[in-house]
């Protein structure tokens, strides 16, 4: 038992609280009239890979007493859903290495008012866990895969086993998820020459794919981020030489701009924090495993929800009120500058990508 919280509240009592407080209206509107209906929950800062753009080779992870218990994560998530959030993404670090993840997923999936529970994973544990994740009620998963070349995969992830990840991806493909999406961070001279191959891979599997520009989160030692920058516009040009792409008007309310690959079931998305600022439509906030509510990916603005719930165990109303007030400090936009040292010192693994 990590703290007194666990003795005051458990999954079933949270369900009862939710029944009394379920909201039909979204109460999470910020100063810029943006409605927050999507929360990303980082359930661990740890990972079994060490991707070059995400982590430095030697990382210090949080001690156990500093991280939220699974019940605390569920309690905070319940408050968000009670306030009108309808989509939760479980992420990390690598979420599948947190013990008890499947029971957390099952308990999140049934929160009254939640439309969609989704997750992001590096696939290293999907081979043995895909079935349980699907059964727990996860509707869609995003899988990170930056290359189809096993040697490159090892270089980019520093320690990853490509074949194991492929087995994980195939296991997920068999489960009948509503959608699987590949996320690929593209770096110049590391994997930019694979964008067409990655799209063909997605088409073959019936997946979507999103290309992500690297963001300057945390200090990394492997490369100069400005030198490795490869813009979404360049990727789009590369893809147009091989595919017929139709710009899609479909919006997830998020940062992705989508194109459909004509004649296939695959959509190609672009997340372009540098070349196309997406902040005006931002509909999301993030909860770190330390219990910090991050109001913006590219700013340090945060509110310590762990402090609130540990000082006032079981006080659902206070937690909801704290969350509502937090939105007042959600910044208008992120400021990413590739040529300077990162202003955001936390790595993406701690942020919850
Ligand atoms: N470990 C899981 C995974 O890799 O899918 C989930 C967490 S990871 C932090 C979530 C996503 O963030 C991954 O798709 C990863 O490629 C992306 N990511 C990590 N660091 C990034 C960075 N500096 N810039 C852009 N994307 C990054
Ligand atoms: Fe781990 Fe995901 Fe970060 Fe790679 S991107 S080091 S898999 S958390």
Structure write-up:
The protein is of the alpha/beta class. The protein has a single domain, classed as TIM Barrel (Alpha-Beta Barrel). It contains 12 helices and 12 strands. The chain has a 12-stranded mixed beta sheet. Strand 8 and strand 9 (267-271) form a beta hairpin. Helix 2 (11-21) packs parallel to helix 3, helix 3 (70-82) runs parallel beside helix 4 (101-109) and helix 5 (126-136) runs parallel beside helix 7 (162-173). The longest helix is centred in the N-terminal third of the chain and has 13 residues, at 70-82. The model is unreliable at 1-8 (pLDDT under 50). The chain binds S-adenosylmethionine (SAM) and iron/sulfur cluster. S-adenosylmethionine is lined by residues 47, 53-54, 91-92, 94, 120-122, 144, 183, 185, 212, 214-215, 217, 348-349, 353.
Please name the defining characteristics of this protein.
12 helices; TIM Barrel; single chain; 353 residues; 12 strands; twelve-stranded mixed sheet; binds S-adenosylmethionine; binds iron/sulfur cluster
